[in-house]
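Aim 2 progress update. The chain analyzed this quarter is reproduced below.
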Amino acid sequence: MKTVKELLNYLEGVVEVEGDCVGVVNEAALPDKMDKVVYTAVFGQGLVRETARWLIWEIGQAVGVYPASIHQLYVEVGTDDAPSNYTTPAMNIRAMNYNTSRAVFRAANKMDVGAMLFEIARSEIGYTGQRPAEYTTCILAAALKEGYRGPVFIQGDHFQISAARYGSDPAAEVQAVKDLMVEAVDAGFFNIDIDTSTLVDLSFPTLDEQQRLNYSLCAELTGFARSIQPEGITISLGGEIGEVGHKNSTVEELDAFMAGYLKTLIEAEGETVTGISKISVQTGTSHGGVVLPDGTLADVKVDFNTLRDLSKTARDSYGLGGAVQHGASTLPADAFNKFPEVGTVEIHLATGFQNMIFDNLPQEMVDAAYDYLRENYKNEWKPGKTEDQVLYSARKRAIGPFKQQWWDLPAEKQAQMGQVLEDQFAFLFKQLNVYGTRQFAKKKTTRVAIHKPRPHDAAEEAAEEDVSDLAD
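Predicted structure tokens:
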């Protein structure tokens, strides 16, 4: 749809718009309208695009599909007021967002799941071509399409400091993360993982010195997040004590980080400030997995004993929900049920879903994506790497440029790919023990109605940034 008038006429009899107010007069008919409205919200131009995004947000507010913070759930786990026998999946929806998120909600509806997060990292925003407002819009539209109702937890994953850029201009790099936080919170990201672990320096002799820059900046960004959160919402925040793919974390590092973090935060913000509710750790995984020369993935073993000890310390000593596991989507299928057993509060899943999409795309589309990479990312081809290894590592960079082509796949192909993804989400929900958590999540989440004014001008997109050195 190319004009606002055309968009509103399309919704006539289902949605009423008067000034800044949106009302739903035929809720049962909403699913049939979502495909075209969300397409306009992603690929439309100017004011009609902004109006479509606004309508999806306000329709969600009207029928009970609303971005929320998972902070209260995690605090209750940390204080033993809620069970810790499940692990919340945090799913990075990189490719084909609307279709993939629909698969998530179908599985969630069948299994009554509410404890789940949709997330995107600072690095992913660029190469997937999804700024926060678009990301949220696709997820809310998918929920409306599939008849899901309740809180929707959307998270900024790895809002990470670049060590290289921090080294050359610390103030500018910290401000870049703050600017992204403002944009994300405005879009409904009420969950943010602060990642300053890139600044951990293991060359120092003491743990406090190694973690000092990490915990100091995490405290500063915590205070900033509290200053921009909407009234009535406590944004769920996480910290990180070790970079994924590097050495395994220890309880001693966790204690050093938390001691410094809490002291710094209280000194800057006062005794009543709310800190992080979870902590990301390294236990043996890496983002995307380790690619062998033939393009297959190497077996990875998670140190579950370390993960158990870190989660227990996080809960018992600091009242956090527990430890967070990154880089887990490419683990063997029989590993996932172990995360709830050791008290992991959250697990991050990304590359596995991307792999499933590439495995099920028409071959001509995969070939086109690989040709694009060969032409535009020649710097990725390095000595000692086979083409299979390079293409596996680089193919995520084709997601943004091919976004519309993949979205425009025939409906039957979209449905086939959606079913493959839905089956995987259902498997993970069962293994992570989150089935039956819908009412629990709804009960433990304070709903705050947030209405946005109707747009009258086209919004200006934030400029892209070089995030090639950041984690996913």
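The first strand starts at residue 15 and ends at 18. The chain is about 50% helix and 10% strand. These observations will guide the mutagenesis experiments scheduled for the next reporting period.
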